[in-house]
Amino acid sequence: MQRSVGRMLARFLCLTVVVVCAWLPVAARAQIMLRDLVSIEGVRGNQLIGYGLFVGLQGSGDTLRNSQFTQQSLTAMLERMGVNVNGLQLQTRNTAAVIVSATLPPFARQGTPVDVQVSSLGDAKSLNGGTLMVTPLMGADGEVYAVAQGPVVVGGFEAAGAAQSVKQGVQTGGRVPGGAIVEREVQNSLDGLSTLRLALRTPDFTTANRIEQAINAQLGAGTADASDLGTVDVKVPPGYTHRITALLARIERIPVTPDVPARVVIDEKSGTIVIGADVKLDPVAITHGNLVVRVTETPQVSQPPAFSNGQTVVVPNTKVDVYDQADKHLQVLQRATTLQSLVDGLNALGLGPRDLIQVLNALKASGALHAALEFI
After folding, report:
1. By residue range, what is the domain housing residue 329?
2. What predicted TM-score, i.e. pTM, was given to this entire model?
3. Is 153 helix (H, G, I), strand (E, B) or coil?
4. Which end of the chain is more exposed for a tag (fewer CB within 10 A), N or C?
């Protein structure tokens, strides 16, 4: 009798735990600092680009016969240094022409070091071990804003032997840490502004409204106004007219809970699928891929007898198999109201990523999948 009572009590406790867990509230979304959700109009970087030469390569540079621009650049550089190379046929393989790019940070001052990215322009095999010569970096207006120079850091490598080689990463591009020095400043100032404009990195009406409410709660009603789904205008309070930096420092620390729409992101090239937490699925029955066609090529070599006039030939041997997968029946996916239940239902189909992409397309077309499909 005591054992029966104990079993009944244990079952009651288990059922109680299940019911309580089922009624637990879903965890709230994390609050994000405002600086991670918006960018401030007027506070941005500027792209720079330049053309330069790489020297010091171990025979892996451009072939001057194929890359005429490299030879012309090398000749012009040597002539500026007082070396007369007119009429000479240069055949060095230790030089490469590169495109140098960088981003000028906002409010960068003269002498500020900036990282630069270099990419081979000719037929160089590797930039490993090379050094970038002095290269002016220009902006969209044609003015020089920085000058780059220094050794490159290449992430890729290659090792080869007589019968095998190993290659990893890209060797025709690299980075020069702190390789550029700012020579010209971009004139920009935030002092004296009466209104600041915040641009949402992910435009959304709900998020813009929450940002407006959060700023007004901190700085007073009427300070912020969400003009559209991607812009929030902030009036500068009287006490911050000449202290815009202090105002921005206060605004960017305001916590906001962003709204994330239901979305499924699919990368067909790599087979990557990312499903958002708010994606819902209605009950639906589905099956996929019951017909399999397999083509197998097994070529055979026909060898003639010794001392004959015959020739050795390769005889093709093709085998085609067509069969049905009998285990592919209709699967019923129950209503999925949480991300875990949705994942469990899709995993029950036993499909790979490629097939799952087709299934998600079909679910969206049927109206059972309540989310936006985004292909990248």
Report:
1. 264-293+325-375
2. 0.67
3. strand
4. N
